[in-house]
From TrEMBL:
Positions of the UniProt region annotated as Disordered: 23-43
Lineage of the species this protein comes from: Bacteria, Pseudomonadati, Bacteroidota, Flavobacteriia, Flavobacteriales
Top-level taxon: Bacteria
Any matching Pfam family: Rho_N
Domain spans labelled Rho termination factor-like N-terminal: 50-76
First and last residue of the signal peptide: none
Protein name, entry field: Rho termination factor-like N-terminal domain-containing protein
Length: 79
C-alpha cells in the first residue's frame, strides 16, 4: 500500500510537532492553499450554512448533513 502524498511536508511536520494527529495534519497540509500566510478569511459566523457544509465536506466531517450552523462551526474549528 502506497503512503498518501502530502502537498506541504514542512507544514505537515510542524503540525505533527504541535501534537496534531497524522490524519488532521495531512488534511490541513493537503488543502489548496496549504502553508500560505493568510489572515483574510472571514469568521465562520459570517459564512452561510451552505458554505459551512461545503467546507465540512471538503475536510471530511461526518454527520454534517444533520448539523446546525452552530454545530458545523464547532466541528470545523475542532476538526
Amino acid at each position: 500500500m502506497e503512503k498518501p502524498r502530502i502537498k506541504n511536508e514542512d507544514q505537515y511536520e510542524a503540525l505533527r510537532d504541535k501534537g496534531y494527529s497524522k490524519e488532521k495534519a495531512a488534511r490541513i497540509a493537503n488543502t489548496e492553499d496549504a502553508g500560505k500566510k493568510g489572515g483574510k478569511a472571514h469568521k465562520y459566523e459570517e459564512w452561510s450554512k451552505d458554505q459551512l457544509y461545503d467546507q465540512a465536506q471538503k475536510v471530511g466531517i461526518e454527520g454534517r448533513s444533520k448539523m446546525t450552523k452552530k454545530e458545523l462551526i464547532e466541528a470545523l474549528r475542532n476538526n
